[in-house]
Specification:
The protein is mainly β. The protein contains 1 helix and 12 strands.
C-alpha cells in the first residue's frame, strides 16, 4: 500500500509539473482585454481578446475556421470553437495556434539588446531587438514591452513578414463567465455514445 501511495503521489506531481510547464511564462499574472492584430504576409487576423490567468477568449471580426469565438482553457487542455450563427460548438485539444504568449521573454530567446524608450498605444514601452532560435535557425525580432506590466505590446519580425500588436489594451480584472461555454449551444461533435448506429436486418 505504501508503494502504491508513493507511485500515485509521484504521478500527481508529474501531472502538475506538465500542466504548469505548458503555460506561457507570467500568463497567470495578467487580466486584460484588447484588440490583437496578427499579420503574416498578406494575411491579417483581428480579434478582440479577453484574458484571465490561463483562460483566453478570442472574438473574431472575420470568423476563423467558421468560428466567431474561440475560448481556450489551459486548465482543461481544451479549446472551444463557437459557431454563433448555428448555435454549435466544437471541442478540440489546444494547439499552438490557440496559445496566447504574453510573457516579456520570447520562446527560444537567446539574446536581446535594448534599443530605446517609446510611447506605443498610450503606454510607455521599452524597445528591444531580440534573437530567437527557431527550428535550427536564428531569427531577429523587434519587441515593445510595457514598462509597468512587462507586457509584449508589439512584436515584429526584422524581415517584416510577421507581426503581432495589441491595441486598446486595458489591464483590468476579467469576469470568469467570459470563459465558460454558453449553455444554449449544442455540440458539433457529439460523443460516440450519442452517434446513431446502423442495424443489420
Amino acid at each position: 500500500m505504501r508503494v502504491r501511495s508513493v507511485s500515485i503521489g509521484l504521478f500527481l506531481v508529474w501531472l502538475l509539473s506538465m500542466s504548469v510547464g505548458s503555460l506561457p511564462e507570467s500568463a497567470t499574472a495578467l487580466d486584460f482585454s484588447g484588440d490583437r492584430i496578427v499579420k503574416r504576409g498578406k494575411s491579417v487576423v483581428t480579434a478582440h481578446v479577453n484574458a484571465k490567468d490561463d483562460r483566453w477568449r478570442f472574438e473574431f471580426l472575420i470568423p476563423q475556421r467558421g468560428a466567431s469565438v474561440i475560448i481556450v482553457r489551459v486548465d482543461r487542455g481544451t479549446a472551444w470553437l463557437i459557431f454563433s450563427k448555428r448555435r454549435l460548438y466544437l471541442e478540440e485539444p489546444i494547439t499552438n495556434d490557440y496559445r496566447l504568449e504574453v510573457s516579456e521573454k520570447m520562446v527560444g530567446e537567446i539574446s536581446r539588446e535594448f534599443v530605446g524608450d517609446e510611447m506605443l498605444n498610450g503606454y510607455p514601452t521599452e524597445l528591444f531587438e531580440i534573437t530567437v532560435a527557431e527550428e535550427g535557425e536564428t531569427r531577429q525580432y523587434y519587441r515593445w514591452v510595457t514598462k509597468v506590466q512587462r507586457f509584449p505590446m508589439k512584436t515584429v519580425s526584422k524581415q517584416g513578414e510577421w507581426s503581432e500588436e495589441f491595441r486598446r489594451l486595458v489591464f483590468t480584472e476579467q469576469s470568469r463567465f467570459l470563459f465558460e461555454l454558453p449553455q444554449r449551444l449544442d455540440p458539433a461533435n457529439p460523443p460516440a455514445t450519442m452517434q446513431p448506429t446502423s442495424t443489420i436486418q
